Amino acid sequence: MKTRDRVRTAASLLTMLLFVVPSLAIAASLPKEVSAYIDRRNDCDYFRGEASPDTERQAEIDRELQKLCAGSDAELARLLRLYAKNKAVRDALEVYDPNIEMNSPPR
Fold it and tell me: What's the rounded Cα separation, in Å, for the pair 43 and 61?
């Protein structure tokens, strides 16, 4: 590996660490139910962005969407109300779209 490639690799790793480590520290300081919601919602959002022409794979995606996303809007609203005075929680949760479910009323 050339020196220039090593420098680029090191710079990329350092940049990743600068973003990941603070995120981990914030996540560790959040209430357990908020961290659990964030994990589930991130998985939900991953599957929301996926589609497949293969019917079997699409069925799997649909099952995961139902499992991970059902009730997400109400849970987000509940957590935002419960932790309204906790800035770290609000900052962590306000990045999520509050209306991803079809029948969810706007907040």
Answer: 11
SS3 4: helix
Nearest to 100 by CA among 39, 35, 41, 40: 41
Beta-carbon count within 10 A of 18 CB: 9
Taking the whole predicted model, whether its pTM rises above 0.85 is answered as: no
In tens, the pLDDT along 56-65 reads: 999 999 999 9
Structure tokens at 84: 């309204």
Q: State the Cα–Cα distance between residues 85 and 81, nearest whole angstrom.
A: 9
Helix (H) or strand (E) segment spanning residue 70: none
Give the whole-angstrom CA distance, residue 93 versus residue 80.
Answer: 7
- How far, in Å, CA of 65 to CA of 38, rounded? 15
Does residue 27 sit in helix, strand or coil?
Answer: helix
